[in-house]
Write a structure and sequence with these properties.
Layout (H helix, E strand, L loop, with lengths): L1 H6 L9 H20 L5
Length: about 40
């Protein structure tokens, strides 16, 4: 999920609602990934 992390690094202060929704979805995906797919190596 490097692409997700690279694409959605930081939300700007003057963002529109659609961008905030996208960042929220990206945050949820990253949270689910870290919870469900733990790196056990």
């Amino acid at each position: 999920m490097g692409w997700l992390r690279d694409t959605f690094q930081e939300l700007e202060d003057d963002s529109i609602e659609v961008e905030r929704i996208r960042y929220a979805r990206a945050y949820i995906l990253q949270s689910l990934r870290s919870y469900l797919m733990l790196d056990k190596s």
